[in-house]
Inverse folding.
């Protein structure tokens, strides 16, 4: 009989200390059996990656990407070795590998490399020897034998890519929350755990601020249709399944409410209203590698209009500088910045067939005396940019208005 393979990924908080590593080891061995082989992917212990990053930035404001990958990849090497030791201590066979040792080949884009191929030979050999395989997440190697990392949160991507390469039956993502919620339970205590969510909804939620999984890993899972089970490493309870289509797809218009406080708003005033101006402004900003999100242009008065847009707070200073330069070149007025903004969004595949969701969102915010600064929509989401200090209130009101506590 062919053995089944399961891939289990444990995030940094699940292996933050020795007790937790022991807990993971227990859990892993409980899945290993005569009929099941287990591959475990681990992240670095707790906040190790942040700490390593901060060491580098104490030496340089622009550490070379190649050296950052040498540095950051060490975190996962520690956790995979420790977990192998803990599993052996329980009397089971286990072996740990780096990304390079299991043949995770990537392109050469340091710090956000893409996986090109995975050669599962070493893993299959270890399975033949009946060993539990532990792989360091978040890393790979280029054709020049340089170590790369897969972008922050990249252990999720390692897990999904291994699940695909090994044709695993299940890919479980263990974390410190017990699934995906209708909104952040710290803001709304009666938020509900979602049983099933689609890849598209999860992608939308991840890009709008829900921080459970790395967005790229969900894209890959979607492309190869690999169901993911997000669950807690501290309980046996079922978590949330991320799948192609959910059972109640048509009925539910809104699956969740997200809130993102990582953006800032820039306004460039009195921009001449003529063709080619927006192209100039946003061309300059994209040249700096800055991602612009929502853009709003006001109705012109006297052939001048104001343009507002949002950028990641981390890029605000760079973006302001670029906007000022281009602004003076095109004869525009002042450039204003506003850090006190938040994006509040509703997400749900059912929006494709339900109408009136946006209108109900605006009415709910109006009733809560919250002013909407900007609006943007996608096929399965509606977002409003509002004042950041009103964001929690907005999330609470929306969660209630769309009866998400009753799902
Ligand atoms: N340790 C890496 C990070 O913190 C990768 C991961 O956790 O998935 O981003
Ligand atoms: Mg981490």
């Amino acid at each position: 009989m062919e053995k089944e393979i399961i891939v289990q990924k444990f995030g940094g908080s699940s292996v933050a200390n020795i007790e937790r590593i022991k807990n993971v080891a227990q859990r892993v061995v409980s899945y290993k059996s005569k009929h099941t082989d287990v591959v475990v992917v681990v992240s670095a212990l707790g906040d190790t990656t942040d700490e390593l990053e901060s060491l580098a930035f104490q030496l340089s404001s622009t550490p070379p990407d190649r050296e950052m990958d040498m540095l950051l990849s060490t975190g996962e090497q520690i956790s995979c070795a420790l977990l192998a030791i803990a599993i052996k201590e329980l009397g089971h066979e286990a072996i740990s590998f780096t990304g390079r040792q299991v043949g995770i080949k990537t392109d050469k884009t340091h710090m956000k490399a893409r996986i090109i191929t995975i050669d599962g030979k070493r893993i299959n050999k270890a399975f033949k020897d009946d060993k539990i395989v532990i792989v360091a997440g978040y890393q790979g190697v280029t054709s020049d034998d340089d170590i790369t990392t897969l972008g922050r949160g990249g252990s999720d991507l390692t897990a999904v890519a291994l699940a695909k390469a090994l044709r695993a039956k299940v890919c479980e993502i263990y974390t410190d929350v017990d699934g995906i919620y209708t909104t952040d339970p710290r803001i709304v205590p009666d938020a509900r755990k979602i049983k099933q969510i689609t890849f598209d909804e999860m992608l939308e939620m991840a890009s709008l601020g829900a921080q459970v999984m790395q967005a790229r890993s969900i894209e890959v899972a979607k492309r190869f249709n690999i169901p993911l089970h997000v669950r807690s490493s501290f309980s046996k309870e079922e978590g949330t399944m991320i799948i192609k289509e959910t059972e109640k797809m048509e009925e539910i218009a809104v699956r969740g409410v997200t809130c993102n406080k990582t953006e800032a708003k820039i306004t460039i005033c009195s921009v001449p209203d003529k063709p080619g101006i927006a192209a100039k402004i946003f061309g300059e900003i994209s040249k700096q590698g800055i991602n612009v999100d929502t853009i709003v242009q006001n109705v012109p008065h006297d052939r001048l209009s104001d343009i507002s847009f949002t950028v990641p707070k981390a890029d605000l200073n760079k973006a302001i500088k670029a906007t000022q330069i281009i602004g003076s070149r095109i004869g525009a007025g002042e450039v204003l910045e506003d850090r006190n903004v938040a994006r509040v969004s509703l997400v749900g595949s059912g929006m494709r067939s339900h109408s009136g969701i946006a209108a109900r969102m605006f009415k709910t915010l109006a009733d809560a005396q919250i002013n909407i600064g900007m609006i943007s929509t996608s096929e399965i989401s509606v977002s409003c940019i509002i004042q950041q200090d009103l964001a929690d209130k907005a999330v609470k009101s929306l969660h209630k208005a769309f009866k998400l506590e009753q799902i």
Observations:
- The pocket of aspartic acid (ligand 1) is lined by residues 11-12, 43-44, 49, 75, 137-138, 152-156 (CB under 6 Å).
- The longest helix spans residues 74-89.
